Amino acid sequence: MRYPLWRFGVFLIIAVWPLWWLYQAWIFALGPDPGKVLVDRLGLGVLVLLLISLCMTPLQKLSGWPGWIAVRRQLGLWCFAYACLHLAGYLFFILGLDWAQLGVELRHRPYIIVGALAWLCLLALAVTSNRYSQRRLGSRWKKLHRLSYCILGLGLLHFLWIVRADLEEWFVYAFIGGLLLIVRLPFIQRRIPRLTRPKAGISK
Description:
Layout: H1 5-26, H2 34-63, H3 67-70, H4 72-94, H5 99-108, H6 111-127, H7 131-137, H8 139-145, H9 147-163, H10 168-183, H11 186-196
Helix pairs in contact: 1-2, 1-4, 2-4, 2-9, 2-10, 2-11, 4-6, 6-9, 7-8, 9-10
């Protein structure tokens, strides 16, 4: 089976962005605190990739094109990869690998605990994203992967806690996330296929 060129292009872009940001941090092109900017950008990348991955199923139902679903799993894995880089950047650039300081950070910045919970949920989804896990878990696999919406909520709360006063950008992501949650409502789910499905039907 041929690997579509456009899919390769999408994933190449996603893979290159962290390297570009790291290069900018290395040459101090990200301001006086490049490490913090790098960590923030990686965290925002997690949220953006999560939102994009959650858009795949509604787009597939609206358009009938199966290509949206073809990239959903890879987007989810890239989302987890960005989350790992975000965590590593925090430990290295913010904490300076000072593990004794971690307890102080957790007490004064509880949003770190929220972010850690989101990372653990992403870990569970990444580990079970393979076909073996789908066969082994059966119907429980879909229930487990609905954690993606819980992760979205945790990610938005984590982001909100960080930005606090400057909420304009946060509201944009929260609005998109809210729309995706509305689309998941059962009566909306039942109406989307009827509006867009061709007469011949679309296999699930």
